């Protein structure tokens, strides 16, 4: 069943139910709704705005409003389908990486809305009292992995205002594209803001195993052929609030 907001949006951008509303009022609401939608998406997808420009971004925003109108009152939650829409735009056929850049933007945006993680420090003592075959390390809620065939992390960093030398990241992204090399990004919330960094192959396996709920023993097994050092990684993970705690399958 359509909500009142969805019914009004359908009337504004189509013929369905339009005779139930005053034409002048619809025109005013249409302009306001489009402006609100554009502002909301610009907040959620800052990298995409810079990549494709205002004109195409506004067209894409208007299109998303028609095909996937918001179902909640919070505009900050709207836009999950934007990346899929961008993947289908003929104007971006020569820029196939934009869709994954949008996915990264939205993942970062949602991470910024996550409550601050609290590490259960008492649970870390289980490392000294239980065999690692019985332990599982729980990642924080904000921790996400995003794998792409394109260098989305380099592109994202290059478009951040605080990046000291963005050209260095642009060049790195261009080089990776020429080699057909993608990236897996780790998104997490450290302190009061989300962070993004590239994961190497070993860390990607490691985080993937933790996310799947494997035991610490099983996850570490995937790192044996590398220089991964758990004792070195753990305090860094705690300081960056990557983990919520450790749980034992046998109390």
How would you portray this structure in words?
By secondary structure, this protein is an alpha+beta fold. 49% of the residues lie in helices and 12% in strands. The chain has eleven helices and five strands, in the order H-H-H-H-H-H-E-E-H-H-E-E-H-H-H-E. It has a three-stranded antiparallel sheet with strand order 2-3-4. Strands 1-5 form a two-stranded antiparallel sheet. Strand 3 (183-190) and strand 4 form a beta hairpin. The protein is globular, with a radius of gyration of 22 Å. The protein starts with a helix and ends with a strand. The model has no long low-confidence stretch (mean pLDDT 91). This is DUF2063 domain-containing protein. It holds the Pfam family DUF2063. It comes from Motiliproteus coralliicola. Residues 5-86 form the Putative DNA-binding domain.
Keywords:
251 residues; alpha+beta; Outer Surface Protein A, domain 3; 2 domains; three-stranded antiparallel beta sheet; 11 helices; 5 strands; 49% helix
Count of discrete structural domains: 2
Q: Which CATH top level class of the largest domain fits?
A: Alpha Beta
**Cα-based radius of gyration, to the nearest Å:** 22 Å
The percent range for helix content is: 40-55%
What is the overall pLDDT average?
91
Structural class: alpha+beta
**CATH fold name of the largest domain, please?**
Outer Surface Protein A, domain 3
| Quaternary organization | single chain
Number of H/I helices: 11
User: What general outline do the C-alpha atoms trace?
Assistant: globular
Strand elements, count = 5
What is the ordering of alpha helices and beta strands?
Answer: HHHHHHEEHHEEHHHE
Bin the strand percentage: 5-15%
CATH architecture of the largest domain: Alpha-Beta Complex
Catalogue the unreliable spans.
none
Main sheet summary: 3 strands, antiparallel
The end-to-end span amounts to 47 Å
The strands making up the biggest β-sheet line up spatially as: 2-3-4
Protein name: DUF2063 domain-containing protein
InterPro entries: DUF2063
Domain Putative DNA-binding: 5-86
Organism: Motiliproteus coralliicola
């Amino acid at each position: 069943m359509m909500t009142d907001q969805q019914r009004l949006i359908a009337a504004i951008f189509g013929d369905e139910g339009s005779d139930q509303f005053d034409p002048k009022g619809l025109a005013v609401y249409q302009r306001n709704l489009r402006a609100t939608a554009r502002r909301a998406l610009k907040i959620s997808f800052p990298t995409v705005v810079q990549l494709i420009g205002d004109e195409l971004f506004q067209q894409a925003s208007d299109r998303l409003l028609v095909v996937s109108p918001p179902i909640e009152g919070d505009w900050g939650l709207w836009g999950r389908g934007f990346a899929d829409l961008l993947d289908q735009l003929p104007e971006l056929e020569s820029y196939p990486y934009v869709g994954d850049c949008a996915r990264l933007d939205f993942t970062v945006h949602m991470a910024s809305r996550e409550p601050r993680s609290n590490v259960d420090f008492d649970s870390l003592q289980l490392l000294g009292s239980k065999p690692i075959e019985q332990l599982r390390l729980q990642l924080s809620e904000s921790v996400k992995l995003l794998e792409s065939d394109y260098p989305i992390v380099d592109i994202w960093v290059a478009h951040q205002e605080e990046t000291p030398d963005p050209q260095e990241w642009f060049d790195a992204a261009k080089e990776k594209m020429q080699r057909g090399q993608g990236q897996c990004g780790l998104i997490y919330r450290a302190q009061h803001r989300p962070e993004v960094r590239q994961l190497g192959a070993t860390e990607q396996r490691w985080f993937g195993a933790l996310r799947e709920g494997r035991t610490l023993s099983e996850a570490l097994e995937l790192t044996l052929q590398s220089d991964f050092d758990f004792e070195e990684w753990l305090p860094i993970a705690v300081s960056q609030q990557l983990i919520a705690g450790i749980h034992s399958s046998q109390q």
